[in-house]
Amino acid sequence: MATTAARAALDLVLPPRCLGCGDRVASQGELCARCWTGLRWIEEPCCACCGRPFEHEIEPGAQCGACMAEPPSYDRARAAFAYDPQSRGLVLGFKHGDRLETAEFLAGTLARAGRRLLVEADTIAPVPLHRLRLWWRTYNQAAVLSAMLARRFAKPHAAQAIRRRRHTRSQGRLSSAERRANLRGAFVVPERARQELRGRRVLLIDDVMTTGATVEACAKALLGAGAGAVDVLTAARVLRADSPSL
């Protein structure tokens, strides 16, 4: 009762605002109806491997042409919504703007979009930041989300499972080929984490999936260190070549 009263008093002083547009909402940490319906939620039918949505109904288990032509190292990837002009402010506020109040909402979208992956995971791990970028940004947004999901689903959280050993250029304006070259050899699994991951199904968490180069590099590092399988779960993913920059 005391907690409820304190929350009500806080709402009087600082009225709840939509995480997207700033309009008044009923409770803290929510989107208004307009922002909620404006998000492009990614649902079935989608590629059984990379999770890219299909425009038409298709048989269960079907893969997109890109995954059949060049299968990724991870088994499955899923995302909650598309990264586009409507979701850009929400994602970038959390990623670069210290909007940590957005984390609970994003973790909820990840839990809904990737429930099967979360239930089947043995271990949850975040995509890492290089220590210089972590120092500049003060927190790893992927690790914030992965820690929340690990607690919610009672899974081990391997926060240091992967280390970014090389400070790479920002991926934001690079082409797909440039992203892969930029990340070559950038990730390593520390020796102390290898035993913990050996034979385990690891669920890799990140905020946004663009070309997939980052999660592909991380998946290769994990599998090379003995992980049994790797799945990927992100809050947003780029679906169009003309999507806004990160």
Mean pLDDT, to the nearest integer, reads 88
**Compute the gyration radius: what is it?**
18 Å
**How many DSSP helices?**
11
Helix content: 40-55%
Task: Kindly estimate the percentage of residues that lie in beta strands according to DSSP.
Answer: 5-15%
Q: How many DSSP E strands? A: 6
What gap, in angstroms, lies between the N and C termini? 42 Å
CATH architecture group name of the largest domain: 3-Layer(aba) Sandwich
Shape descriptor: globular
Structural class: alpha/beta
Give the ordered list of helices and strands: HHHEHHHEHHEHEHEHE
How do the strands of the widest beta sheet line up side by side? 1-6-5-2
Text of the CATH class of the largest domain: Alpha Beta
Summed up, the domain count is 2
Which regions have little confidence, pLDDT < 50, spanning 5+ residues? none
| CATH fold call of the largest domain | Rossmann fold
| Sheet having the most strands | 4 strands, parallel
Can you offer a commentary on this structure?
With 246 residues, this protein is α/β, with parallel strands linked by helices. The protein has two domains: 1-38, no CATH class; 41-237, 3-Layer(aba) Sandwich (Rossmann fold), CATH 3.40.50. It is built from eleven helices and six strands. The protein has helices at 2-13, 33-38, 65-69, 85-96, 103-113, 115-120, 131-137, 141-153, 176-183, 191-197, 213-224; strands spanning 76-82, 123-126, 163-164, 187-188, 201-209, 229-237. The strands form two sheets. It has a four-stranded parallel beta sheet with strand order 1-6-5-2, sandwiched between helices. It has a two-stranded antiparallel ribbon with strand order 3-4. Helix 11 (213-224) links the parallel strand 5 and strand 6. It is globular, with a radius of gyration of 18 Å.
